[in-house]
Design a protein that fits this description.
about 200 residues; alpha/beta; Maf protein; single chain; 7 strands; 7-stranded mixed β-sheet
């Protein structure tokens, strides 16, 4: 991407914005968010996949702002729960659920599943992010995956969402126990963003 290219990230989530800014800081991208554009309304994420939600948000943001737009949707997919919460991760405990409520619901459901099975079940999980990029010339999606497992208790105070209970494969710290730099090196969102950047670097 060329230097100082203005791009709009279709989110009002300041945690997500900060995480993406950290990854894009050296890429010459001037990243703005939805709250910088009063005319942008909330987009209902009613798609049946992460890809559908990301594209819907990016298309709408580009249509209103006229600027190249990024949007992402992220799902935590837990093996023992058949891939849930998946596309419903942000509202797993209800439409207005807090991060803590979603985490509590996840741990409860895994514990209940174990009690029903009368044995320890796999806590294997993966975070998956799909980032959509929409401009006047193209529509693209990029995926990032981070495999790990769900811990039995909350660990760490950093990050956001399910970070306090997600332990990446090969690591001893949850996302919430890592600093932002370390997390971005291996996170699903960091990997998806780097795939986006690699695509544009090939074009230059």
């Amino acid at each position: 991407m060329t230097s100082s290219r203005k791009v709009v990230l279709a989110t009002r989530n300041r945690d997500k914005l900060s995480e993406m800014q950290a990854v894009l800081a050296d890429a010459g991208i001037e990243l703005h968010a939805a709250f910088d554009f009063p005319g942008l309304e909330e987009v209902v994420e009613d798609g049946d996949s992460l890809e559908a939600n990301a594209l819907k948000k990016a298309r709408y943001t580009f249509e209103i702002t006229g600027l190249p737009s990024l949007a992402d949707d992220t799902g935590l997919e837990v093996e023992a729960l058949g891939g849930a919460p998946g596309v419903y991760s942000a509202r797993y405990a209800g439409e207005s659920a807090t991060y803590a409520e979603n985490v509590e619901r996840l741990l409860y459901d895994l514990d209940r599943h174990e009690r029903r099975q009368f044995q320890t079940v796999s806590r294997r999980a993966q975070f998956r992010t799909v980032i959509a990029y929409v401009s006047a010339e193209e529509e693209l999606t990029f995926e990032g995956v981070c495999v790990g497992q769900i811990t039995r208790e909350i660990r760490g105070e950093g990050g956001f969402g399910y970070d306090p209970v997600f332990l990446p494969l090969g690591y001893q710290q949850t996302f919430a126990e890592m600093d932002a730099v370390e997390k971005n090196k291996i996170s699903h969102r960091g990997r998806a963003i780097r795939s986006l950047l690699a695509y544009f670097n090939k074009k230059e």
